[in-house]
Design goal:
Strand content: 35-45%
Number of domains: 3
Structural class: mainly beta
Number of helices: 5
Strand order of the largest sheet: 21-22-31-30-24-25
Number of strands: 31
Length: about 425
């Protein structure tokens, strides 16, 4: 019994010593320094799946503490506290990318610092994987294009492809190993049918059909990846309907399609709206205008823009002028004459050769008959109730041109309006 009591006393003393703060060696003034044991976390690494929302870490703090994170997709509750036992709740946004991601949660207590590494798995639900949804507007002319800057989608690219943006750009180049697909009705079609390795010519149903003749509906839209520029060009074919819209879906993917980025693009092909600027000075109107590079497609000069010149030259308002030029052209009270630009004289002898009060013009911009080819036909001028239509013939080269003509009163040609049309064909 005596020995047992002795050993019991030693055991109790040892327990008390173990539970007490640790005393260190004395300093020069023989002061006793107490070491406070560090705070303890029950986990320094946490792994969750892509759609898991919460995890909890338990810890004890010997004094005031705070917690922070380096990731916006992790929220902490609470973010600080005092001495005692605590539960740190971590809530997570769903990871809508294919690649896993990591965050660091840092807990500070006094001078102590401990980190918790959080790993969230990549999305395993194909329907939830984040894609890029955007829009592009092409130009107004045949084969004109708009573009997407791939660097604008660096976060989506890196999050889904599991590589850096620069590695992705290298992979989509003509010597790269990332493939390009057109997605139509859920089916992935490997595509390389336009000007680059990652490209496609699409028909009006947005199917990858390759080059036909460039004309709608067999060829409606092309998509070309230009890796060296970091851009995707999306352009139109020929004879696209006015203000047509298309929705195309395409993807870049690695060899086994375990990593991919999908683009869903709304494409607008706007109708050509040519520039028409009119300046009236007395009875003269100077018109600066554009004509698109398409045979017979006209540009309209509206009579409203000529109102001041009409009033000054022939004392007619727009309504009166429209009435005059839309009656029987052989007896109409207003006539049209072309101006010979070599002499400045009016050609008052030629008959009308286009619709209404109007002419087909030769390469000297004087009246001629219909031939249908350049240079015997260059432009045509037609007067209608909407205004003056000016269009080009086949194969007219791009460049600046000037046409000069007058509208005069049939019974008094001293009352007239002169039109100078400066045309930019492109």
């Amino acid at each position: 019994m005596k020995d047992i009591a002795k050993y019991s006393r030693w055991f109790v003393a040892a327990c008390l010593l173990a539970s007490a703060p640790m005393f260190t060696a004395c300093d020069d003034d023989d002061e006793i320094v107490v070491e406070v044991p560090p705070f303890n976390l029950d986990a320094t690494a946490v792994s969750v799946v892509w759609n898991e929302s919460e995890a909890v870490v338990n810890f004890s703090a010997s004094e005031n503490w705070s917690a922070t994170t380096d990731a916006s997709w992790v929220q902490l509750t609470p973010e600080k506290g005092e001495f005692g036992k605590h539960r740190l709740f971590m809530t997570f946004e769903h990871n809508d990318y294919l690649s896993p991601r990591q965050a660091t949660v840092t807990v500070k207590c006094g001078e102590g610092v401990q980190n918790i590494l959080v790993t969230q798995g990549g999305c395993t639900d194909a329907a939830s994987v984040l894609s890029v949804s955007t829009s592009v507007e092409t130009g107004t002319t045949d084969f004109s294009a708009g573009s997407l800057s791939l660097s604008s989608y660096t976060k989506e690219i890196e999050g889904n492809m599991g590589m850096t943006y620069d590695e992705f750009i290298q992979g989509i180049g003509n010597d790269g190993d990332i493939d390009f697909y057109i997605i139509n009705d859920g089916e992935w079609n490997l595509a390389s049918s336009a000007g680059t390795r990652c490209s496609a010519w699409l028909n009006a149903d947005m199917e990858n059909v390759g080059w036909k003749d460039g004309t709608y509906p067999d060829n409606a839209i092309y998509v070309e990846t230009w890796a060296e520029d970091g851009e995707v060009a999306i352009g139109r074919g020929v004879d696209i309907p006015d203000n047509a819209e298309f929705d195309v879906e395409f993807a870049y993917a690695n060899a086994d399609k375990s990593r991919y980025i999908i683009f869903k693009v709304n494409i607008l092909c706007p109708t050509y709206e040519p520039v028409v600027d009119v300046v009236c000075d007395g009875n003269k109107a100077v018109v600066n205008m554009e004509i698109v590079d398409a045979a017979y497609a006209p540009t309209l000069i509206k009579f409203d823009a000529l109102a001041d010149a009409l009033q000054a030259g022939i004392s007619l308002d727009v309504e009166g002028f429209v009435s005059a030029v839309t009656s029987d052209r052989d007896t109409a009270p207003v006539v049209m004459y072309m101006i010979d630009q070599a002499t400045g004289n009016w050609d008052m002898d030629s008959n009308y050769t286009a619709n209404g009060i109007g002419y087909w013009l030769d390469d000297k911009y004087l009246p001629t008959g219909w031939t249908g080819s350049y240079p015997s036909n260059t432009f045509y001028i037609e007067t209608s109730e909407d205004g003056i239509y000016i269009g080009r013939s086949n194969d007219v080269p791009s460049g600046p041109y000037t046409l000069k003509f007058v509208y005069a009163l049939r019974t008094n040609v001293t009352k007239y309006v002169e039109i100078e049309a400066n045309i930019d064909c492109f």
